[in-house]
Specification:
- This protein is α/β, with parallel strands linked by helices and 298 residues long.
- It has two domains: 67 residues, Transferase, Pyrimidine Nucleoside Phosphorylase, Chain C (Transferase, Pyrimidine Nucleoside Phosphorylase, Chain A, domain 3); 219 residues, Pyrimidine Nucleoside Phosphorylase, Chain A, domain 2, CATH 3.40.1030.
- Helix content is 42%, strand content 13%.
- A seven-stranded mixed sheet has the order 3-2-1-4-5-6-7, with helices on both faces.
- It is globular.
């Protein structure tokens, strides 16, 4: 505990005296937290200070590497890890159950991790969907409380803070399924650059989608970045170009409404899901020259 105070001072003593932590320091700080060696009030102070200071990509990378030592690992072949936010969705349904049905014939497995709702915008969660909807045989859902219990133990503390912390940004992709491809969403452009620096070497192919509600799902015109080694491909995707006329909601919907939408999908929602599947197929398999080609193959 004594040496943890140096990390509090690094992120919480004001603009003139704050400093960035090295990757080794943040690795140690996060490891102490996950081992349960730091009191909750000290963890809360650290998380708030770290976010206000503004996290560096190096710090994020060190924290993610600390996660590796606490996560139960699996081997899911032909899989894509989908990094959904843990703060839920408000306005539109999750599409992954419909997307998976389009990808089944390509022998592609979708891997998801869920947990109870983390505070931020509220909404319904991946966990709720996976516990209540019929999942295709190519969807592999894991509860974070089982594969990463040390992190789930922080849920109450984070909920009591009632605001986002740095953990919201780096909890979505953890590599637990040994997937060669990882995809996550981003709301703010600066985080796209940080995510690329953090994850580009942790997956054979890694993509960031500036999608709906900061998730990786496409409901309207958006940007896509695909990384493979040192190569980065940037694309603009507009559903209109694929004949998709789905009108996304701007109003809150209930979980029951969202569940009904994916269990009894409209033609427009199915076509939107097909586009999302085509994007994932294009990210996964570089045999397709364009997203349109992947869309047509589906």
């Amino acid at each position: 505990m004594a040496n943890f105070l140096q990390y509090i001072k690094a992120v919480g003593t004001g603009i003139k005296h704050n400093r960035d932590l090295s990757k080794e320091e943040i690795f140690d700080a996060m490891s102490q937290i996950l081992r349960g060696e730091v009191p909750n009030e000290v963890i809360g102070a650290f998380l708030l200070g770290w976010r206000v200071k503004i996290e560096t990509s190096e710090e994020f990378l060190g924290a993610v590497e600390a996660f590796d030592t606490f996560i139960k690992k699996y081997e899911i072949p032909n899989s894509i890890e989908l990094g959904y936010p843990f703060d839920g969705k408000n306005d539109n349904p999750y599409l992954f159950t419909l997307v998976a049905s389009y990808l089944e014939k390509f022998n592609i497995n979708l891997v998801l991790c869920g947990d109870d709702l983390n505070h931020a915008k509220g909404g319904f969660t991946v966990k709720q969907v996976c516990k209540n909807a019929k999942l295709g045989k190519n969807i592999f859902y894991f509860d974070r409380g089982e594969i990463f219990p040390a992190f789930t133990k922080l849920n109450t503390l984070r909920e009591n803070l009632q605001i986002r912390t740095s953990l919201n940004s780096i909890e979505k992709l953890t590599g637990f399924a040994s997937s060669e491809v990882g995809i996550l969403g981003a709301f703010h452009k600066p985080f796209v650059d940080k995510y690329i620096q953090i994850y580009r070497n942790r997956y054979k192919r890694f993509a960031v989608i500036k999608g709906n509600e900061g998730s990786l799902e496409i409901f309207g015109k958006c940007k896509l970045w695909i990384c493979e080694g040192d190569k980065i491909e940037e694309l603009t995707i507009d559903p209109v170009d694929f004949g998709v006329d789905y009108q996304k909601s701007w109003d809150k919907i209930s979980f029951e409404e969202s569940l009904n939408m994916i269990q009894n999908p409209s033609d427009a929602l199915l076509k939107l899901a097909k586009l999302n599947a085509a994007v994932i197929l294009y990210i996964y398999n570089n045999h397709f020259k364009t997203i349109q080609e992947a869309f047509d193959a589906i």
